[in-house]
Amino acid sequence: MSAEATAQVPRLRSLRADLHIHTALSPCASEQMTPPAIVQAALMKGVDVIAICDHNTAGNVGAVQKAAESAGGELTVLPGMEITSEEEVHVVGLFADLRTAENVADRLRALLPAADPGYYAFFGEQPLLAADGRETGRETATLAAAVPLDLNDIVGLIHDHGGLAIAAHVDRRSFSVCSQLGFFPEDAGFDAIEVSRHTDAASSRMEEFSSLGLPVVGSSDGHFLEEVGTGTTVIRALEPTFAELSLALAGVDGRSVTRA
Question: Which CATH number covers residue 234?
Fold first, then answer.
């Protein structure tokens, strides 16, 4: 290849990503997980890309995106959510844009019962937040509940909306594909599997997960500010976008993902 041709080939970048972070909207997350606080925590950890994945909702994604813009635009915020299937399997869905994520969230919300006082007493409030962290409302659906869709339906719903379906924290003893089903369904159509920050890279289990034939990513599943960026993925791609992440998961033209 000539020097001129080489100069025209776009250079891949190494981007550090935490693709599974909750806001205070998730019933199990800290009230400190506000949009500006999450953005600052990610920037302090040197993270380039995050995905907001609250339980069964995308209600605070737009606020975190705006907070990132206000902080200088150095952090890319991808829309996502962590969906609980009727088998109580957690699936991370990532989407190309906010409107698509909100459309999926609206579909799920219609399937969830309304929260009652007992629910709030146990799980706490579910605040909808502005970019500056102010509360703008409260979600009244039971976000902690499983939706009445099975695993195949969930993966299909994500793919029907052009999203990426990731098997969440497959190493956990609860709410993972393996813990809930007793095996990993290789025909489920996942685009990747997520191994939590609790499994060391030297663990013998990593060989087990790698043998599944899917890209392995790492995420913090952060529910508290100090957890943001504690589990990450290195994405080799041209830019920090959903489209490039999709290509990296597929290994197109040298792109790649590696659990950090």
Answer: 3.20.20.140
